[in-house]
Amino acid sequence: xxxxxxxxxxxxxxxxxxxxxxxxxxxxxxxxxxxxxxxxxxxxxxxxxxxxxxxxxxxxxxxxxxxxxxxxxxxxxxxxxxxxxxxxxxxxxxxxxxxxxxxxxxxxxxxxxxxxxxxxxxxxxxxxxxxxxxxxxxxxxxxxxxxxxxxxxxxxxxxxxxxxxxxxxxxxxxxxxxxxxxxxxxxxxxxxxxxxxxxxxxxxxxxxxxxxxxxxxxxxxxxxxxxxxxxxxxxxxxxxxxxxxxxxxxxxx
Length: 253
What we know:
This protein is an alpha/beta fold. It has 8 helices and 7 strands, in the order βαβαβαβαβαβαααβ.
């Protein structure tokens, strides 16, 4: 029987790349996201390309009730989850604190922090029953250093860092690994979402850089998940060669 990975936010970017990476390694995959058409397309692609099984679940991790209902009632065949990738999350706006939109703040906190907690709490009983498992949380370099106009997005990723550390300590007795992956600049739909569909501004964020790709991060996630049972990478920061931290760049402009 194949191992099982659950990937949240699998409809684009890093989440989609992780689903493809693990499917290529013959994991059966549970994919979740808000866009049902994209989930259906990815499910078909993974099954056709890699001959594995896929369970598609359409819901928003910000919704505690729906998230809990979808994940606590998984068919028994899908409950033996080996790896949980808490990838769902977003950044909204790049405004100074006094000018920021409260709705943007709440959406980021609800997705990046509350959503991660809802999913983790729903899945943990399955891992506890198996006395093993691996939770991989998608953090950010923004969870290591605060930068101008990053305010609440940075706060949400600092929370992911702290939650990951807390999980690692509390779940130590249960033989469950916890890893926090902290990417720097990755060229995905992330910036388009952050700048609310302004593609020119989003593209400018990567000008002069050869940024990371979603596939680069998926490779690192898979590496962490494929290590021997006695090895756990607790925290991993990944940037492109031209980036060191949140505000140090060597751009070719």
